[in-house]
Amino acid sequence: MTPTALSDRQKNPEVVFLCQRVPWPPDRGDRITTWHFLQHLLERGARVRLGTFQEEERDAEGVAFLAGRCAEVEAPRLSRRQRRITSLRGLLSGEALTLPFFRDRRLQRAVDRWTADGTTDLIHVYSSSMAQYALGSPARAKIMQFAELDSDKWAQYASASRGLGRWIYAREATKLLRFEDRVARTFTRSLVVSEVERRLFAARIPGVVPDVMPNGVDVEHFTSSGDGERHPHTAIFTGVMDYEPNVDGVTWFVAECWPTVRARFPDARLLIVGSRPSPKVQALANVQGVTVTGRVPTTPPWFDRAAVAVAPLRLARGVQNKVLEAMSMGLPVVSSPQAAQGLGDVPARTIAVADGAERTCEAVLAWFADPEGARATGLRAADWVRANWRWSRVFERYDALLRDLGVPLPGN
């Protein structure tokens, strides 16, 4: 059916939106992305039915918030401890353990009901594990927002592990890639977050050409309030602190780099800002100069205490929100190659890409020693982010994609 015919039939497209976590509040990477796409659809007049999972007690508030905006919300409770046991069924069925982990009869019944009459215009799925709910569902168009291939994450874990863990992670990478291949060939379009991911996707799933749909950053929210609280020898690391790439990156930084930094600047401070710190991260609070905050109401005031942001991620790729947010706040960033490669062509003197402990220390120490230079670099970074990474620019691409699929939003 043509876009004109869709407009004649109904003004407001019927959308089913599926994501792993309740997309409110937008306080971690996947919630930030899913909330902004969901909000955009709602603001443009789509009637959205949301399928997701509650993982924390506070998610009930998020569900109530979203229920007032969506046509319907189905959000069963997910206990990660129980689901780890459930996921072992994958060993018997031969499938990726991720799939039974996120499988729920109640949510499947809801998706089946929402799509049964064949009037669904768009199914938008974020994260491949949620695609299992929509593989057989009829819709005018289906968008699979991979962002990054989850199978490659497990491959990275396997390469960094030993023994049984290495075998389990390698098996998960193989089995999940097989499922991702099936999804990519079933859905109308596949989205990845960067050119780096597009090249990896083409190598792993040949014959399917994904669209690049980058993340954005809320530049109005991530705006510095000034230098009144800024300490010239303070670094900051942000993120959800039970997420393995964050845990690995920050514990590595404290073990391998922090002693050198403190030896040069005895007043140096490191702020580790983010929810759900794992025991390994909590233990870092015992290291001199290190503060572990746990969950905070909002991160901009913490950025405004720091002179440098660090993103020493070793098990990561894609576009890192922590990097974009720090740059938007006017901070220079010391990043690993893995955390920076999704940014594409970054202008000179806006970010320091450092591989290994020695170069990471050098970059942090150089900006600690030159506060004025650090501020100038941070301001250039903020200008670049504001010009290139606003959500409005992302949605220009998204709206063009929807038009191409025959699912234009009202006014689009």
* Radius of gyration over all CA atoms, rounded: 22 Å
Can you tell me the CATH class of the largest domain?
A: Alpha Beta
Helix-strand makeup class: alpha/beta
- Helix share of residues? 40-55%
Brief write-up:
By secondary structure, the protein is of the alpha/beta class.
Secondary-structure blueprint:
Layout: H1 3-9, E1 14-21, H2 29-43, E2 47-53, H3 59-67, E3 72-74, H4 80-86, H5 89-93, H6 98-101, H7 105-115, E4 122-126, E5 141-147, H8 150-159, H9 163-186, E6 189-192, H10 195-204, E7 211-212, E8 234-238, H11 244-256, H12 258-264, E9 269-273, H13 279-283, E10 290-294, H14 300-303, E11 308-311, H15 321-328, E12 333-335, H16 337-340, E13 352-353, H17 357-369, H18 371-388, H19 391-404
Parallel strand pairs: 1-2, 1-4, 2-3, 4-5, 5-6, 6-7, 8-9, 8-11, 9-10, 11-12, 12-13
Helix pairs in contact: 8-9, 15-18
What key attributes describe this structure?
six-stranded parallel β-sheet, globular, 13 strands, seven-stranded parallel β-sheet, Rossmann fold, 2 domains, about 400 residues, 19 helices
Textual characterization of the structure:
The strands form two sheets. The chain has a seven-stranded parallel sheet with strand order 3-2-1-4-5-6-7, with helices on both faces. The protein has a six-stranded parallel sheet with strand order 10-9-8-11-12-13, with helices on both faces. Helix 16 links the parallel strand 12 and strand 13. It is α/β, with parallel strands linked by helices and 412 residues long. Helix 8 runs antiparallel to helix 9 and helix 15 packs across helix 18. The protein is built from 19 helices and 13 strands. It folds into two domains: 228 residues, Rossmann fold; 155 residues, Rossmann fold (3-Layer(aba) Sandwich). It is globular.
